[in-house]
Amino acid sequence: MKIGLFATCVADTMFPEAATATATILRRLGHQVVVPREQTCCGQMHMNSGYRRSAAPLAERFVATYGAFDAVVSPSSSCVGAIRQLYPELLGIDHPVLERTMELSEFLVHRLGVEDVGATYPHRVTYHPTCHSLRVTRIGDAPLRLLRNVRRLELVELPDAQECCGFGGTFSIKNSETSSAMLADKCDAIESTGAGICTAVDGSCLLQIGGGLSRRGGDTRAVHLAEILASR
Amino acid sequence: MTVPAEGFPAAASRELRNRQLRRNLGQATSTIRAKRANVVAEVPDWEQLRAAGSAIKADVMANLDSYLLQFEQALTAAGATVHWARDGAEACAIVAQVARAHGVSEVVKVKSLTTDEIALNESLGREGIHALETDFAELILQLDGDWSSHILVPAIHRNRTEIRNLFRRTIAPEIDSDDPAVLAEAARRYLRERFLSAEVGVSGANFGVAETGTLCVVESEGNGRMCTTLPPVLVSILGIEKLVPSFTDLEVFLQLLPRSSTGERMNPYTSLWTGVSDGDGPQELHVVLLDNGRTRVLRDEVGRQALHCIRCSACLNVCPVYSRTGGHAYGSVYPGPIGAILTPQLIGIENAPTLPFASSLCGACYDACPVKIDIPRVLLHLREQAVEAVDKPAERLAMGAAAWVFRRSDRMRLVQRLMRVLQRPLVRDGRIRRLPRPLSAWTRTRDLRPVAESSFVERNGSGAARR
Ligand code: SF4
């Protein structure tokens, strides 16, 4: 399959290793992965902040860049959610590529039917299901299925896992104190598991959780799911 | 209804500092959440019920004009007097007029958000008429000059020790226990006498049946039943959106509402009455149909779904923002996610521009809503209106600049390179601990990951370099 990889602006800029890992996993499964140089940002921040009209050219750009691929895969479920749901609802864009755009774990499990990517990761890991992966793209337990098949990985359950981490895009700045209160509870929950790694499928939420954990000074780190799945 | 000009972020920051509030609230919301999840899971056709509830409400909104006239006709035929109120002031004046006509200085009230919305108690107070709240929690707040922070559990921010001390100061000096049963008994004794002597009762209504003119009040304590049956005169005020077409539609909502709100299979008291009946219950019934901004909401095709709300409060209980800040931060009679979409529409977005941003867009409210109001979608819709109504030049400039950069990939790579240089003095041990305003709002509680040494697309991209 010829797959267009959409890194997203956040991962491209701050988590390039997550995008690299996504490409690695897909290539190992025998697919042709193309990284279009024209890609930028899906426009989610603009749509979520009330600047819908500024997002329209970005959405058109996405469709023009990826329209011809058999599938588009991205390491961010919230950007995929914006593309699949907000492009048609908010911008009136209707193109078959929107349905073919998927976050990595849902692509592996739901589209390819792959639950074991042959990874090894000798760490204690807890998984935070991000809000948009639960309630917009609705990927269900796809990430957990993949994690359960990673060799030497000890998966520990996160208490109140489905609670929002408090990121919410510009919410984290506009309502920074409420956002921080949500983050504090999330970090407490993560640390209570004794895991060394907290993973998720969204770079933006990992920016928030990782930033909170780092400020607290503990040993727990935030790592994107793709990096775990690409580890050997 | 007005909301304080300070806006949500400032009010939330104050509320967040109240540790007792956060503990009370955290405990209360997680208890209700668990109860709700359990009883909802028992219903095999829950999703179909939600879809039915949503469809019935959509039909009501689309044909409200004819349903309202049908409702008026049925009520009049059943012996009630129907009043139309354009706004809160008109509605309050109607109630005051009825009370004055009967020469009373006190009315007994069923808990009603609609009457809170129009500040009925304050308005009657100015006319020398005391409106006595008879719901346990509302009574507590009234005695203490406090105000509701939750649609359904108005005193959710108070604990029982606080309540015992309050009762000692006010209605039951002898009370020495904070056992809920003892507290409830004290309130009951106090209220019984007032019920028996009241001449005028005031209620809202959960539903009005257009076909029959029937009003419906759903409650847990029985005080509502007393208010709507004991006084010889009853005034019921309802927003025009509260209609359902036919009696059988109640079947859907009476399943959805109690499970979503209190987490009960059925609520303890459901009162239904149609007009007046000889020798039974109130002999004079006034029904006030309130607009107060609703017809304006109705004009907005995306926003109007906020009028489908049946005030169950499920969205509050599951909301990660509400459960941390509490209801007062919203500064409105309608707090939480529903408040964030309803209040700005009722009073005008320019009067509550921060409310649609009081959400991380986590979507928990949408999944919980028994009538499937797509709250996140309406929030985005209102955010766009807020940006247009209240100009924030710095933000507009930043958003415009970001969009300009993202419109061409070579611009984006250039900005990434620039950020790499600019961040150099700020990065220590692979993280940024302090940023200048407005990004200091991030670094006050969080470190920031720096821009990576090389971009993924820069290293791996193929195709045109410019565009
Ligand atoms: S918006 Fe939905 S969940 Fe919230 S109070 Fe109204 S009916 Fe209940």
Summarize the SSE layout with pairings:
The complex is a heterodimer of chains A (232) and B (467).
Chain A: E1 2-5, H1 9-14, H2 16-28, E2 32-34, H3 44-48, H4 52-66, E3 71-74, H5 77-91, H6 96-99, E4 101-103, H7 104-112, E5 124-127, H8 131-135, H9 142-148, E6 154-156, H10 171-174, H11 176-192, E7 197-200, H12 203-216, E8 221-224, H13 225-230
Parallel strand pairs in A: 1-2, 1-3, 3-4, 5-6, 5-7, 7-8
Chain B: H1 8-16, H2 19-41, H3 46-62, H4 64-77, E1 81-85, H5 88-101, E2 106-109, H6 113-117, H7 120-126, E3 130-133, H8 136-144, H9 160-169, H10 180-197, E4 200-203, E5 207-209, E6 214-219, H11 223-229, E7 233-239, E8 243-244, H12 250-261, E9 269-274, E10 284-290, H13 294-299, H14 314-318, H15 322-325, H16 336-347, H17 364-368, H18 375-389, H19 393-406, H20 409-422, E11 427-428, E12 431-432, H21 440-443, H22 456-460
Parallel strand pairs in B: 1-10, 2-3, 2-4, 4-7, 5-8, 7-10
Antiparallel strand pairs in B: 5-6, 6-9, 11-12
Q: Label the overall shape of chain A.
A: globular
The CATH class name of the largest domain in chain A reads Alpha Beta
Contiguous low-pLDDT stretches of chain B (5 residues minimum) are none
Cα end-to-end separation of chain A:
24 Å
Q: What is the tally of beta strands of chain B? A: 12
CATH superfamily of the domain at 43-292 in chain B: NagB/RpiA/CoA transferase-like
CATH topology of the domain at 43-292 in chain B: Rossmann fold
